[in-house]
Design brief:
- It is a single chain.
- The protein is mainly beta and about 160 residues long.
- It folds into two domains: about 100 residues, NusG, N-terminal domain (Alpha-Beta Plaits), CATH 3.30.70.940; about 45 residues, SH3 type barrels (Roll).
- The chain contains three helices and 15 strands.
- A hairpin with a 3-residue loop joins strand 12 and strand 13.
Length: about 160
């Protein structure tokens, strides 16, 4: 009976481990995301793993060679054998793939220009306009302060929508 399990891989050596696992006869699944970043002023596309440092391995008869394959730090174990990843989990991830890359749903709940209220910190209670997301779960809000509009960067969970 074949089943999927998770393998921990060496950091930044995932493709090496996947190649050795394939040479050993294992089917692997390494879901990747599509991200756009700016590097040295140019927009580039990068493809990080959905689960950095981990891949799924299909175990059919034996698993010991997968556990010690070069580039692999081991399998995620459930006692003395690999922990099984349910097939519906793998199917759900694969159903989100577009052109071989996983597309996650957008998390942004605000649109630029939406009215928001600050719920924490020194600016508690102020009303401003949502201006966008930043890295590390931060948001930009435009506030009317000091006789003009000031751009303020806040934690994402410190604002709420203002309902008309």
């Amino acid at each position: 009976m074949a089943y999927w399990c998770a393998a921990r891989l060496l950091a930044r050596r995932e493709h090496l481990a996947l190649r050795f696992l394939a040479q050993s006869g294992y089917e692997t699944y390494f879901p990747q995301l599509r991200e756009h970043r700016v590097s040295f002023g140019r927009k580039i596309e990068v493809r990080p793993g959905l689960f950095p440092g981990y891949a799924f391995v299909l175990i059919q008869l034996q698993w010991h060679t997968a556990r010690w394959a070069p580039g692999t730090l081991g399998l995620i174990m459930d006692g003395i054998q690999p922990a099984k990843v349910p097939d519906p989990v793998i199917e759900e991830i694969r159903s989100r793939e577009r052109n071989g890359l996983v597309e996650l749903p957008r998390r942004e709940v605000f649109k630029a220009g939406d009215k928001v209220r600050i719920t924490q910190g020194l600016l508690l209670g102020h009303i401003g306009l949502y201006a966008g997301m930043r890295a590390h779960e931060r948001v930009l809000v435009l506030l009317a302060l000091l006789g003009g509009q000031q751009r303020v960067e806040l934690p994402k969970d410190s604002i709420e929508a203002v309902r008309p």
